[in-house]
């Protein structure tokens, strides 16, 4: 067991100072989010205008506001064709505001599109539940310096989604509107063009409808309009976020380097727990690395996927670390310090993150080629997605059950050790066991504290968001808390790992020259002159009430 | 509904003669703005009679908003008529003038409802036009940003469209009630009441927005979430206002020139405070039975009623005891429709003979 970590040799005073400093840093992180950053993301809503295109899209020309033969009221329009391809739904993103043509900037990081379909109740065009909706979507882009309507093709796609609408029974009369679920339309992993244009056609194959009413667009009811909601990350938030990452990366790397040197200076091989902490630090460094800077100059659509992967890696390592940490503190377990003994429990984490990885690779991976792809749109796809999410959820629950089980076991061991008072006979042995207990309790307490903070912050965020949607948009302290939650959680994550790296590094006060594994090295502590309790030691005071 | 074009001609013909008669119905003017704006040859629209000087100014400044104002008003009146079908007061207008808006010379519940739904309708439509990108002046949010960041939109996104509609509607509609127009005999209490009801309509629209959210965190998890507010449809607003109409609160003007709640003897619980979304009124409603030019009521003569019904649409109630005439009516409709290959729907015409009861 890794005895003699830094934590055991810190005085109360030092520990208090460190904690106070970290608390200040944590509050700073929180305040940066609350004061400087705007809300993390915002949206823009587009009511798609309807235009007439006699060529039915065969000419390949873009329909935009300036060449639009607008259809003012869709229900009063008599189409010349039966497949309705002549009706085009058009939206140009973003809007002009205050007479200025707004532009998307690379700072926005990503663009998501969500579609709202407005369906009116009608006796003639009945909506049937779970009706498949097929859209022919064309998305174009325009560079900054180009002509006003010089649109270039970004992607063309046939999109099928299931339209889920409900209406209360008493409202079933003409003129009432259905309440429809929104549909995911597209997801762009980078916002590298300033303007986008979307043309949507909703073709109806009358013949197919005759043979099979379940075919696309036959049962979508009386569609009165499409509304597009575009979501992006705010530039201000990206700025604050990136600078925070840029600031944290060197700190994490330096700390990691120090820790690495510490365990390398040991004459023995690093313990499993020490290696686990090292990997945890490494995954944090990967998570923190501000690779997003390059998206501001070059087009890198895979950043969204990369961000997911990095976060997934970090959580996998963190969960594994908790498991190993609890296991390594089972004092009487002889199978410790061996990754293989955790095989069974670790497999849960691996399966859970593996399933999510597969889901993410399919969803966001395919979106690199086709932004309109959604794994949920096809029956098989959504089955795969459900299975993946179900598996990972089950595995995560199983993992936490095992973790809890392990923690309880550690506690009971500690308790039985205490009540038996066996180790009291040997002063050295006692200190060693106490050290193990202390280290375990410290991390437990700290982890619980962090979890509590995160949960409180999460609820504050929820509360703040609820405030925003009240009658009046109040700009109180909590309304800015969404960003503060993200920066605070980011800070907490970093502080947690940095503290682990610092506190659980082997202390060279005792063990610099140790050759053997500590378990066999029973006399070392007594020999060391620095351990004569000249100063009130945090560990001893911490344990006093229970040992007395 | 009368086809719009015929309607429009009617309006133009009647505007002049109607003006002397119907000062209170400036709304009908507003509702016609879109048709007036549609042709380029029409003389300056903002000088339409019915607009107050302040409104004419706003109109001049925001010409592109006027179609929205007009459509919004039309939608509101349509919804009002739907809510009150079969009632003695059915939100209808003078048959002779073809005016769209109902007329209120007295400060009744009905006036309160009309003002509220009209201002809600305008707010709704302005918000919608904003989203279509048809209005150039919808504003961005006022997110605080460091000075060296050039564009506040990139920094913190753009504001809510409803907020814009709300402000515009307040500026355009309420300005009328704040002005002292020498041509109209100024009634402070009525102005306060109108403003309050206008505000109630807008507030109800705003308050009944529903948040819709999209999760877009890691693997679509909900740690990242963006929400937007979805406006209620005019139909929902109409329903809510209809309830508010039933619970409208009587007020009077006190010595200080403020609105004061009036104790209502009929209801047991005494209300001490009116919510900002409550409708307020001052005068008792007339019975709306007879045409009365003075109070601006049309009467129920010629209305279709339902025989044997005990509700408001029943002939006993609707015809105010004057009795009714019964006519047979033949309605032609499409029926037995068949789909023919390819791509044609063939229908037969069916005649339905029904009896209609019409108030004397």
UniProtKB/TrEMBL annotation, chain A:
Membrane topology: Multi-pass membrane protein
GO BP: any one term: intracellular protein transport
Any one GO MF annotation of this record: Wnt-protein binding
Keyword Transmembrane helix carried by entry: yes
Domain (Wntless GOLD) ranges: 50-233
Origin: domain of life: Eukaryota
Name of the protein this chain belongs to: Uncharacterized protein
Originating organism: Caenorhabditis brenneri (Nematode worm)
UniProtKB/TrEMBL annotation, chain B:
Keywords, ordered alphabetically: Developmental protein, Disulfide bond, Extracellular matrix, Glycoprotein, Lipoprotein, Secreted, Signal, Wnt signaling pathway
Cellular localisation: Secreted, Extracellular space, Extracellular matrix
Annotated GO CC locations: extracellular space
One Pfam family from the record: wnt
Superkingdom of origin organism: Eukaryota
Residues making up the signal peptide according to the UniProt record: 1-18
MF (Gene Ontology): cytokine activity; frizzled binding
One of the GO biological process terms: specification of animal organ axis polarity
InterPro entries per the UniProt record, alphabetical: Wnt, Wnt_C, Wnt_CS
Family statement: Belongs to the Wnt family.
Protein name: CBN-CWN-2 protein
Protein species of origin: Caenorhabditis brenneri (Nematode worm)
